[in-house]
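subagent[fold] <- orchestrator: predict structure for attached chain, return tokens only, no commentary.
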Amino acid sequence: MNRYLLGAALAAAFALTAPAQAQSAAYGIDPTHTFVTFEVSHFGTSTARGRFDKKDGSIQFDRAGKTGKLDITIDMASINTGVAPFDKHLQSADFFNVAVHPTARFVADGFTFDGDKVTRINGSLTLLGKTGPVVLTASRFNCYDNPFFKRQVCGGDFETTIKRSQWGMVYGLPGIPDDVKLTVQAEAIKQ
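subagent[fold] -> orchestrator:
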């Protein structure tokens, strides 16, 4: 075997045995399967719940390389508790001050994995003009080939509890507690 043929054979064998390069893929938020909800105790008697109906964002995700980036913007005027007067009060300067701060934004690049499953996302939430750290913990995560989109979809349920006063939302304290549970149900479609 001549040395050029031997070199080509060795190069081909190395290429077949070398680990695959990790590649990040772009995913777009599926608004029909992505919801941001909150719950807070209402004066110790019941739980007030609501969601934000309009959100947009993107994800860069590399499952093999165990990395990711996330950028989600929430339209704060889209708050929906099922009670229109309550929604108006939450949109006011007492709470979300939508006239001055129409959006909230969560940006993250700290993804933690267990095997190929995302278990935690570290990022920052900008709300009411202030930015603070937030850690979302995954209660489930999965990727699958969606039969309708004919593309991969990844998503899960993520939770955290924040102190609303950290962002300057102090109306009603302490009768309305500082702790607010956030749940993010998210699915994103590979682009």
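orchestrator: received. Logging for downstream: The first strand starts at residue 25 and ends at 29. The radius of gyration is 22 Å.
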